[in-house]
Design a protein that fits this description.
Length: 172
């Protein structure tokens, strides 16, 4: 049984982790080094991504074409994008978003775009509407989507359930 579950399979609250820090009855050990954590399993996963995973294999990759930086945390990626590329990534309000409507702007020369951007534009054109839950199966991420909007390649409209009901005049 995982360390952070009780006998009924219910997650412990923060008092469990505070007690574990003192008593050390459940310690996660890194398989690559001497690092130990009494915190949740996600803390160990974050350590492995940041210390033992090559940058190109980390879960949060910079969407900029000429930048090959990868990060273990989304917040660190957003700091990098702001500092290095001077783009402020908006806080996405994931809760309630069902569909993104994507319109590709014609204000740029498609042939002059780097290949990484061209591939994403093709995905946007083929998927004018992208369901929120479909992103896991697409080769683009939310960061790509917001990054391309900030660069001016696409316009993006977010729809919640109520927005869709109103737009298509459907009733609950």
């Amino acid at each position: 049984m995982p360390c952070n579950l009780n006998e009924e399979g219910i997650r412990y609250n923060t008092s469990y982790y505070r007690r574990n820090k003192k008593e050390r009855f459940c310690v996660n050990t890194c398989p690559h080094c001497e690092y130990e954590s009494t915190g949740p399993k996600s803390a160990m996963q974050s350590h492995i991504w940041s210390k033992h995973t090559p940058e190109d294999q980390r879960p949060f990759q910079c969407p900029h074409n000429e930048c090959n930086r990868g990060y273990a945390a989304k917040a660190t990626l957003h700091k990098h994008i702001l500092k290095s590329h001077k783009i402020s990534m908006p806080k996405k309000k994931v809760k309630g978003i069902l569909v993104y409507e994507i319109k590709v702007k014609d204000t740029f020369d498609y042939n002059q775009l780097p290949s990484k951007y061209r591939k994403r534009i093709i995905i946007y054109k083929n998927n004018k509407y992208i369901r929120f839950d479909k992103f896991e199966s697409l080769p683009i991420s939310f960061n790509d989507l917001y990054f391309d909007r900030e660069l001016g390649y696409i316009s993006l409209i977010e729809y919640t359930r109520n927005d869709l009901l109103e737009r298509f005049k459907l009733s609950n």
